[in-house]
Amino acid sequence: MPAFHQPRSLRPDLDRLWQRLGRPAAAAIAASAAGLIFIEVIVLIVWGADTGSSTSPGSALRVGADLWLVAHGTTLHLSDGEIALRPLGLALFPLIAALSAAHRHASLVPWPTARTAGPPGPAGASVAGASVAGASAAGRAASAAGAGPRLWRRVVVDIVEVVTAQTLFVVLVALLVRSGPVRAGLGSAALGTVVVALPAATIGALAGRHRLRAAWRRLPGSLRIALRCGVSGFAALIAAAAFGVALVIAATLPEVAGTERDLDVGVLGGVGLAVAQIAIIPNVVLWALAYALGPGFHVGSGLVRADAVHVVNAPDLPVLASLPPSALPRVGWPLLVLVPLVAGLVCALMAHRATAGRRSRERLATVGLAGLVCGLLCGLACQESLGQVGAAGQYGPAAAWACGLLAGGEIAAVGLVLLGGIDLAVRRAERPFLPTDAEPSFWRRRLAPVVRSRPAPWTSRRPD
């Protein structure tokens, strides 16, 4: 039979299609579905513990799907308002799903390497064979030089495939639960998933390709130092705010326990209530950070700030029973100043160690850039913790942009003062002693009282 009449096998094409589209989609959907199943199990446990509930299992499953969609940043439209608050504790599910799916897909798909030449000839090769070997070696070098852009394009393709598959799966679930009384916004579902999954998939793809360190080293050295210092300052802010929240909850533990007893949810219902509070605790920490920075945070139609507290109809969540009942006395205001002060100290010390031996101008510029990074992270985090629940109003920082501006400015100011003082002290210590240093300073000479000498009596020089 002639060659053109032989049937062509479709198996290589199907394998190539599975490698390109099927595997990343399956990895992203499996990771996302694991988080959905976990939330559904928790909701079913709480539903089964409530013996007096008249809701059906389908309604309980719909509630679990709505919680999973809220974790992805989906806005739920109700008859009397909307739910647009993302519990940052539940946001770990889409983050882990995108990270694991991208890492698994990137580690299984091989790099597109250049074709290598054949085996070398015998030792007694001719001059023509040597020239051919030299040409093939030059071709391999050129192929290796051009393989770099292809490798990074492969990383971008991995990221796009995982994020697209995860976003389509979230939109599909939102369409399935859209027929009930709670309608999920498709645009918010897609946008919220992309915002959360894109950075996680980027890190996962780079780590799966073993290019995370190489991508980090491609950045300029001053930018790497500023990023490290800014992230460290932001972590110090979060740690200080979390410590303050822990102290406040410990001080108001009787009120929190009393609110939980009034709800009377039982043992398994208490487990579900504890899970809900754990999911909202990262939001509360960021609200406390906004309280320490000055703008404060909204609780429904009320406002909690250091100089004014106005809370009306707070939700029956035990952790919210630890809200301050009145304004903070002025004696306690210096405690709030310690939060950016400690973060600025951490940022300045890291910058001092990382930029040792450089010029003072470069060190101060690094601290300023680190403050900008910290302020940007703080503003984005406060914005993510902000949302609306029902028709009661907003929950979260009063002004996320103001929180970022204050955090970045205060940390940069503390770092500039501290690092500038260190540089000035080192410069004064290294300067040799000069004889003019023993003389009074310019301002001391100017401020010293002027001692006017009396004019000598006039005497005539004419001889007698």
TrEMBL record:
Annotated transmembrane regions: 21-47, 155-177, 189-208, 229-253, 265-290, 333-352, 364-386, 398-422
InterPro entries: DUF6350
Signal peptide (residue range): none
Keyword terms: Membrane, Transmembrane, Transmembrane helix
Top-level taxonomic group: Bacteria
Keyword RNA-binding among record annotations: no
Name under which the protein is recorded: DUF6350 family protein
Membrane among keywords: yes
